[in-house]
Design goal:
The chain is of the alpha/beta class. The chain has helices at residues 14-23, 43-48, 76-83, 102-109, 145-156, 167-178, 180-197, 202-222, 227-234, 240-250, 253-275; strands at residues 7-10, 33-36, 52-54, 66-69, 92-95, 119-123, 133-139, 159-163. Strands 3-2-1-4-5-6-7-8 form an eight-stranded mixed β-sheet. Helix 6 crosses helix 11 (253-275) and helix 7 (180-197) packs across helix 8 (202-222). The mean pLDDT is 95.
């Protein structure tokens, strides 16, 4: 833990709360975390954990080594403008806001002629709320190795992290892991509904579906073999698994997943154009 590290969360929603909970007492003391949130009713829960709060950007920002922007993308431009007077050259800016390109945010923090490039853009996902998140990160060229390690440690407090090259790659991260939990939940819904149709109770189907998905994912994560080999080992010629996989194949399952990710990545690019104006 770095006792001298101070962090500001600009926006105090669910993702900020998850990150702050992961950081407090591990990466830095809770008292070194400052939260800016317009919802004053939410401040009590932050203060109960030993953190300081404000309803608007204030001078405390100047004392914070790291700023984490966690506001809705449609509000980001105005929020950034309200903070700029306290930005210092050695501030590390971390954005977890969806849909705002790193270069766009750099221009808002600085100027179009002199953008602020000590900036890391991140795309976490909702399992971060239970400490099992997956986050993609991309850094601008003003971020040194020490800052990269610091940014990674912040997001690693709520799960695993993967560095990617740039905003274009983050569109892929958004499509796969950012939106991915929704795909998993949809598959779980279908498994549970299908289980009931073949004779299980709702609770039996839910328990079996959740356990099977968790166990298969754990096996894939800990195995040195690719998922294709693991799948083949479950599949006996002419057996029950082969019948199910044939049905998936006939429906074009792999193509459906590929098309879904392509649609999500395309929408990510469109939102960046919309919110970056």
């Amino acid at each position: 833990m770095k006792n001298e590290l101070s962090i500001a969360f600009i926006g105090g929603g669910n993702m900020a709360a998850a990150l702050a909970s992961g950081l407090a007492g591990k990466v830095c003391p809770a008292g070194n975390i400052h939260v800016i949130d317009i919802n004053e009713e939410a401040h009590a829960s932050w203060r109960a954990r030993g953190m300081t709060t404000a309803t608007a950007a204030d001078e405390a920002l100047a004392r914070c080594r790291v700023w984490v922007f966690a506001v809705k993308p449609q509000n980001m431009k105005d929020v950034v403008a309200s903070t700029r007077q306290w930005l210092r050259p050695d501030t590390l800016v971390v954005s977890v806001a969806a849909g705002i390109r790193a270069d766009t945010l750099a221009g808002w923090l600085g100027t179009p002629e002199q953008p602020f490039r000590r900036l890391v853009r991140c795309m976490p996902n909702t399992p971060a709320l239970v400490g099992a998140g997956m986050t993609g990160l991309a850094a601008l060229d003003g971020v040194g190795q020490e800052d990269r390690e610091l940014a990674a440690s912040l997001l690693a407090s709520v799960g695993d992290v993967v560095w990617v090259a740039d905003d274009a790659a983050l569109d892929g991260v958004t499509a796969l892991s950012g939106s991915g939990p929704a795909y998993v939940f949809l598959f779980l819904e279908a498994l549970i509904a299908g289980g009931q149709k073949v004779g299980l109770t709702a609770e039996q189907a839910r328990q079996l579906a959740l356990g099977t998905l968790a166990g298969a994912t754990k096996l894939a994560a800990e195995s040195s073999e690719p998922p294709s080999v693991l799948r083949e080992r479950v599949t006996s010629k002419g057996g029950t698994t082969a019948a199910a996989l044939a049905s998936f194949g006939a429906a074009g399952f792999a193509g459906i997943v590929e098309d879904a990710l392509a649609a999500a990545a395309r929408r990510s690019r469109e939102l960046a154009e919309e919110f970056g104006k």
